[in-house]
Amino acid sequence: MVARYGGALGQKVNEIAADFNASQSEYEIKPVYKGSYAETMTSAIAAFRAKEQPAIVQVFEVGTATMMGAKQAIYPVYELMEDTKEPFNPDNYLAAVTGYYTTNDGQMLSMPFNSSTPVMYYNKDMFAKAGIESAP
């Protein structure tokens, strides 16, 4: 079971699950919509306490510290990849993303799935006309 998004992002998660399910017969992913980010995390914590937690849950950035602090409730991605002998290179992600999900000793705890990266566009000519030499 995977706690997932609603709307367009939920449709994408459903597609990923369907593709995975069609690719093999040993495991089945059943996406389950659990509400907002906060509701999903609350639901996952309650499920863990009831010993009925999902195999995978998608937690928003604000919940990262909570999940990192719940050492018995999570299976860190670096351990999962080592234990299953799956190749995994955190350097394939933007450093700002991996840094957020990594311990102080460099171990990546969670898998960045759809981290947002803010981008600012500006008109350099308009800035120059306004006397601004570089973007903030």
UniProtKB/TrEMBL annotation:
The superkingdom of the source organism is Bacteria
Alphabetized UniProt keyword annotations: Periplasm, Signal, Transport
Q: Which InterPro entries match?
A: Bact_solute-bd_prot1 (IPR050490), SBP (IPR006059), SBP_1_CS (IPR006061)
Q: Where in the cell is it found?
A: Periplasm
The record lists the membrane-crossing segments as none
Subunit architecture: The complex is composed of two ATP-binding proteins (UgpC), two transmembrane proteins (UgpA and UgpE) and a solute-binding protein (UgpB).
| Family membership noted in the UniProt record | Belongs to the bacterial solute-binding protein 1 family.
This protein is called what? Answer: sn-glycerol-3-phosphate-binding periplasmic protein UgpB
- Tell me the classification of the organism that encodes this protein: Bacteria, Pseudomonadati, Pseudomonadota, Gammaproteobacteria, Vibrionales
